[in-house]
Amino acid sequence: MTSRRAALVLGALLCALAQPAAAAMERYVIDPEHLSVAFMVNHLGYERLLGQFLKGAGSFELDAEAEKLQNIRVEIDADSVFTNHAERDRHLRSADFLSAREFPKITFTGTSFEKAGINRVRVTGELTLLGRKRPFTLEATLNKLANYPIDHRRPTVGVSARAKLKRSDFGMTYGADNGLVGDDIELIFEFEAVRR
């Protein structure tokens, strides 16, 4: 190798080393102790009943500096539905609604996202409910990304997200035609996710 060529190679190598390293995607896991999944639905026209799913899990990969998000997956345990009424909760687990024994998981898989404002993103993907997959969109707000001030002290993301769906799109039609239970469902997600 000539001295001129060696100098060019060395110069290119030094320039490459001087560039800041690209930030890597980092995996975040939802903390089950800081996960709230709720839903609201019209009940007989008298109220918008507020219910919850008490068990769920999820993870995603985030590059905060490059504002990239990928491999989003959230699973909810169907039989963890809770509306503060035992008989109603049993009915919701039945084949009239969630068929929790046959379909124990409600799953959202995010496939893409776009910025929707300051600290806001729109995540699109698929929701699987009652064994049926349908397009699904979450409107999410990044509340905070920082080292947790107590306990684990790891980088933690706090997120608020909202979505809407028609349960009849998934074949869940009980009570929709006669007005007993609304077809439109509003979903509410609040969670903290910890970097692993």
Task: Describe the structure in your own words.
By secondary structure, the protein is mainly β. The chain is built from two helices and ten strands. The protein has an eight-stranded antiparallel barrel with strand order 1-3-4-6-7-8-9-10. The relative contact order is 0.17.
H/E series, N to C? Answer: HEEEEEHEEEEE
Helix content range of the residues, please?
A: 10-25%
Largest sheet descriptor: 8 strands, antiparallel, barrel
At CATH level 3, the topology is Lipocalin
> Any idea of the CATH class?
Mainly Beta
Spans with pLDDT under 50 lasting ≥5 residues? 4-22
Q: State the total count of DSSP E strands.
A: 10
Structural class: mainly beta
Topology of helices and strands:
Layout (H helix, E strand, L loop, with lengths): L2 H16 L7 E18 L3 E7 L2 E8 L4 E10 L3 E2 L3 H8 L11 E13 L2 E10 L2 E16 L7 E12 L14 E15 L1
Antiparallel strand pairs: 1-2, 1-3, 1-10, 2-5, 3-4, 4-6, 6-7, 7-8, 8-9, 9-10
Keywords:
196 residues; mainly beta; Lipocalin; eight-stranded antiparallel β-barrel; 57% strand; elongated
Summarize the structure.
The chain is mainly β and 196 residues long. It contains 2 helices and 10 strands, in the order H-E-E-E-E-E-H-E-E-E-E-E.
